[in-house]
Write a structure and sequence with these properties.
11% strand, 3-stranded antiparallel β-sheet
């Protein structure tokens, strides 16, 4: 009888193991079927990331220089200066990529595509300017005689209830105070070569804690400072001369139109006039492409998170396979 019970238990254990093996086989087939197609792409990406990791120090150093110093200059001058910095990095044996680009080092393809949807010109110079704004600690002052930056900022921040002001507005200080308190973005348009001294605490981000809240002093008023507040400044002057004491308080950016940007915009105007349905289809494809890229990135991040956080044999984790 004892032997019978022992054999019965063995039989049950074997049945459980067979069932588990069948489930593992099905999960393995599902996993290989789902990720098999990504193998080549992920291997290529892993090789590329390994190379980027080696060159990371030099690339980030040069990118930091671009963000800190080259915003106000033309694309030709930027390229020449970046080449000089890369040569300097090589001279001191600092690893740096052969094909250096601010866009590939600091740019996020999904974010760049969303900027393009909001009418940021697609040329390299304009995209670099947007990346500088995104990575700089100081508020941007954009030299924008053609109104490109204005159009982009207004479309990008429209959903956040952007407030547009000018220094000539009678109530611009009141508007500014409200936006700082409630974390609403502000666009200050058409400034000259001198800025109102009242703006200095905002430009220098002179915040302090008072009663447990972060505050800032604006003129005679002390107001709460929201971390969501964003401040943009544009000027229509073609060749402004800002004093050093102004330049060090802002991120100065040259947003003048480039031949590539002008060509893209003119092509868009011609197509919109001659074949409006093609222009509409193009815009829809751009939006769809951006949405697909964002979704792909989210799915990849989720897969990598599941694979890295899964403990033991992943084939035993039903939720991870799903």
């Amino acid at each position: 009888r004892d032997k019978f019970e022992e054999n019965t238990k063995k039989k049950e254990d074997l049945e459980v193991q067979v069932d588990m093996c069948a489930k593992k086989l099905a999960r393995a087939e599902k996993l290989i079927g789902g990720l098999g197609g990504e193998q080549d792409r992920w291997q290529s990406a892993a090789t590329e990331l390994g190379q980027q990791y080696i060159n990371l120090t030099g690339d980030v150093l040069v990118s930091s220089g671009v963000v800190a110093y080259l915003g106000a200059f033309t694309s030709v001058y930027r390229d020449d200066q970046v080449k000089a910095w890369r040569i300097a990095c090589c001279d001191i044996k600092l690893p740096c990529g052969d094909e250096f680009s601010v866009i590939s080092t600091l740019g996020d393809p999904v974010k760049i595509r969303s900027w393009n949807i909001f009418f940021l010109p697609t040329d390299q110079f304009s995209v670099e300017n947007a990346i500088i704004i995104n990575n700089s600690r100081r508020w941007p002052l954009m030299i924008d005689p053609q109104g490109q930056a204005n159009k982009w900022i207004k479309n990008m921040e429209k959903a956040a209830n952007l407030h547009t002001i000018k220094l000539t507005d009678s109530d611009y200080v009141r508007t500014l105070e409200n936006c700082i308190q409630f974390g609403t973005p502000v666009l200050l348009e058409d400034v000259g070569e001198e800025l109102d001294p009242l703006l200095e605490p905002i430009l220098l981000k002179q915040t302090f804690k008072q009663g447990g809240a972060i505050c800032i002093r604006l003129g005679d008023s002390t107001i709460e400072y929201s971390r969501d507040f964003r401040f943009y400044i544009t000027t229509k002057l073609r060749n402004p001369h800002y004093l050093p004491e102004t330049s060090v308080k802002v991120t100065l950016l040259n947003f003048m139109i480039t031949p590539e940007g002008l060509e893209d915009q003119l092509l868009g105007i011609v197509v919109a006039r001659e074949k409006p349905e093609l222009e509409e289809e193009r815009n829809e494809l751009i939006i769809q492409s951006a949405s697909n890229q964002k979704q792909l990135k989210e799915i990849e991040d989720k897969i990598l998170e599941v694979l890295s956080s899964s403990e033991g044999n992943i084939l035993e984790d039903e939720t991870a396979i799903q």
